[in-house]
Amino acid sequence: MLPSLRDCCLIFATTSLLSAAAAVRAEDSGGFELEGGGVWLTRNDARIPADTGTEFDLRDLTGSGPAAYFRVGGEWNINDRHGLRVVLAPLEISGTGALAQDTDFVDTTFPAGPTEGKYKFSTYRLTYRYTFHDGEAWRWKVGFTGLIRDAKIELRQGDLQASDDNVGFVPLLHLNGVRRFGERWRFEFDFDGLAGGPGRAIDAALKFTYDLDDHWRLGAGYRTLEGGVDSDETFNFAWLHYGVLTAGYRF
User: Fold this and answer.
1) How many CA atoms lie within 13 A of 146 on its CB side?
2) Is this structure's pTM higher than 0.70?
3) Closest Cα to residue 193, out of 177, 176, 208?
4) How many angstroms separate the CA atoms of 192 and 171, rounded?
5) For a Cys staple, 237 with which of 15, 121, 186, 228, CB 3.0–4.6 Å?
6) C-alpha distance across the termini of the chain, in Å
7) In angstroms, rounded to a whole number, what is the distance separating the alpha carbons of residues 92 and 2?
8) What does residue 231 show for φ and ψ, rounded to 5 degrees?
9) 67 vs 62, 123, 146, 203, 221, CA distance in Å?
10) Helices (H), 155-246
């Protein structure tokens, strides 16, 4: 799924601002990373409204994948201890399948049969993090992330259509660890997550990266995103798995 015009504008604005900020900093003050690959779903259950809707599996409509995805991130190290990171992660998956039974969704009843489905879960994040350990082998950072969630579930059968949009702010805890192997190889663990109340959100990645030179870096790994909400209005829980390829540039 190609990014929308809004996603492209957000990416351009963010990378331009971070580039301008990094230009006035010392060497290795930050950088950019582009991440992409394939995403699979092993769960995507929805019931909207949560009290009167019919529960169904969105994978019956969109499929389980793989679907293409991308993310773009920018990092600015203010000094040796304090840093900021911005991540733009648009995601939208759509397809056509069949509802197994008559389904009540957003006050609309969809008969069993062929149905178009759309699942959107785009996130935009700003993270502050503090380096509390920087040794010869490991570097660890801890902080917090402010996440803007832009989510949507939509069903369509011809002229019959209904959708549920959910835009909101989610505070998350952040942890990042990097293990150095020689001068060029690195292993990285990255985590944003929090659980409590009516829902949870966990985004964790494991990556190996290789420095091509003093600036360019390539990597590969695995990411998982799991969570959802169970409230009076909405029930939706999903579990996504990403095959990750990255290209990064350090200042």
Assistant:
1) 4
2) yes
3) 176
4) 9
5) 228
6) 31
7) 9
8) -120, -175
9) 10, 17, 26, 18, 17
10) none
